[in-house]
Amino acid sequence: MVVCYKDRFLVLSACFSSLCLSKASSFFFIKSGLVCMMLENRSMSGRILLLLLSVNVISFIVNAVPETCPADLGEKCGEDGEWGGEFFPGIPKIKYEGPSSKNPLAYKWYDAEEVILGKKMKDWLRFSVAFWHTFRGTGADPFGAPTKYWPWEDGTNSIAMAKRRMRANFEFLNKLGVDRWCFHDRDIAPDGKTLQETNSNLDEVVALAKELQGDKIRPLWGTAQLFLHPRYMHGAATSSELGVYAFAAAQVKKAMEVTHYLGGENYVFWGGREGYQTLLNTDMERELDHLARFLEAAVAYKKKIGFNGTLLIEPKPQEPTKHQYDWDAATTLNFLRKYGLLGEFKLNIECNHATLSGHSCHHDLETARINGLLGNIDANTGDPQVGWDTDQFMTDIGEATMVMLSVIKNGGLAPGGFNFDAKLRRESTDVEDLFIAHISGMDTLARGLRNAAKLIEDGSLAELVRKRYSSFDTELGGQIEGGKADFEMLEKKVMEWGEPKVASAKQELAEMIFQSAL
Ligand code: XUL
Ligand code: CO
Fold first, then answer.
1. Interatomic CA distance for residues 366 and 169, integer angstroms
2. How much is the pTM?
3. Among the atoms of ligand 1, which is closest to the Cα of residue 272?
4. 275-276 and 218-223 beta bridge pairing
5. From ligand 2's centre to the CA of 330, what distance in Å?
6. What are phi and psi for residue 346, nearest 5 degrees?
7. 258 near 202, Cβ under 8 Å?
8. What is the pLDDT of residues 331-370, one digit of tens each?
9. pLDDT tens for residues 31-60?
10. 184 an active-site residue?
């Protein structure tokens, strides 16, 4: 290669390789080097012939290799400066290869079309990619600068950049084989100077998203980002400032409209700043009343525009505020009941939020489920050694199995699903890590589904629970459960029976049965 460095085609191939960093182009570079070495040993006419052949090979490869122009060469990528080629060259469409596969870019447990307990895996799981983590996550933390520099990013928050990112999102979804995505209004389009300008930015990007969605892809849910902008520092619907309440209402109005326009199946309210830092300066009763009025207005507007999606509230105990009003599933249920909003809302349970509130994810899912409120899951997990919302992709098979037990008992989540509200670790900086993380998260839940189905089909865990309460499967039990047993009647029975026999809870046996399915 060194000897024929001056050959024009090799120089060309070297330039091409340095411009386009895809695996395919490196392959081309090596290949041209080999042809170049062959050229060393030929006669003049042979050299010319081979040179012509090589030029043909080059133009074939240049045409065949997907365009991978880096951001700083954006203007060379297409007439309007739009990215024309693949964002993830070298990453194939992810396929199911089964548990023995060692391929990091393949599903080992998630087989979309496979039927488990009468439903396809893709219909039990209804996966969704969270735009904010996957396409806006930078790896920055309170102590450190961003670590992720995706090749398509140009460092701006322009509309052109927002559109390019949107194209990357849809290539990502298509390659993963995931049909749903979730977004905040401000992740996908930049703020303008006025609400009018902001709304028109959003419309421009949403129009492109609509086109890219095609027939198959839809938002699992949309939401309004009511926590980043400084105007929301005291809250949005619970702000002490009327102007901020009004601004938040206008923002939610627009976010609901675009979610509806894109065919979104749900709309989420996460009250990141609906809480307080100290009760000394807070009228909690008034703030909660305001929140209820805000949600009532959202219900009315949803009906007005004919949006049939489910409205979801996402509980979280704290972070960023010291105390958030939607602390956990039970607290949110109480709020909905108090303000007569039951029936209008369901819950979006995020596993890492559940653990932050001192529960397990399974606990909050069951609390939501038994109250008819389980609408969606933000699929992630925390770290037992870290006290904050680390938003990691779920990897614990036991946790995933418990999650799926709740989902199966719920009859699935539709029109909700599993949104990967999860991000790469700060130290994971390769583009392919985005795929690996989602594949791993999807396989973990798929494995959880398979295990939960095994437990349900086996039936011994359900039998253990049934037996445990069997003393109530009696005439008196029926009277108690039917609200027909008063204290005098029960006292009479105790006098007759004496001390009751108390059976073992069989916890270890329950754990043994559970473990045997993993
Ligand atoms: C924050 C969180 C949000 C919501 C949507 O902890 O989970 O991303 O899911 O606003
Ligand atoms: Co979330």
1. 33
2. 0.86
3. 1
4. unpaired
5. 17
6. -125, -175
7. yes
8. 999 999 999 999 999 999 999 999 999 999 999 999 999 9
9. 333 333 333 444 555 555 555 545 444 444
10. yes
